[in-house]
Write a structure and sequence with these properties.
3 helices
Length: 109
């Protein structure tokens, strides 16, 4: 019997919806969760069904892979957010630094 080789990755991030839920494909199933992992659901064409805690205990790799992928995506989102111009600081010029230090030393006078 020949093993079938898959070209798609096992774990794949799909999207983050407007409600803040992360949709991740693990193998043939699609899961969605919030960033706290309190509400994990299996997505299908008919809607979504909550995942039983028994299934998560029987298959701990589901929660582990979901946590890894969601944390990776959140890290990417934070890096993208902090790279914007509003988060960038311009360094002080030598004159500004000197004026600030002088103001600190003159505070008690």
């Amino acid at each position: 019997m020949e093993k079938k080789r898959f070209t798609t990755p096992f774990r794949e991030f799909i999207t983050r919806d407007d409600a803040g839920r992360y949709h991740v494909r693990l193998g043939p199933q699609t899961f969605s969760t919030d960033y706290k992992f309190t509400d994990i659901r299996i997505e299908s064409e008919n809607g979504s069904n909550p995942v039983d805690s028994d299934l998560l205990k029987a298959k701990p790799w589901i929660l582990k892979n979901l946590q890894q992928e969601v944390n990776f995506q959140r890290k990417k989102e934070r890096a993208e957010m902090f790279s914007k111009d509003c988060f960038q600081r311009t360094p002080y010029s030598p004159n500004q630094r000197l004026a600030h230090n002088n103001a600190k030393s003159n505070k008690g006078l």
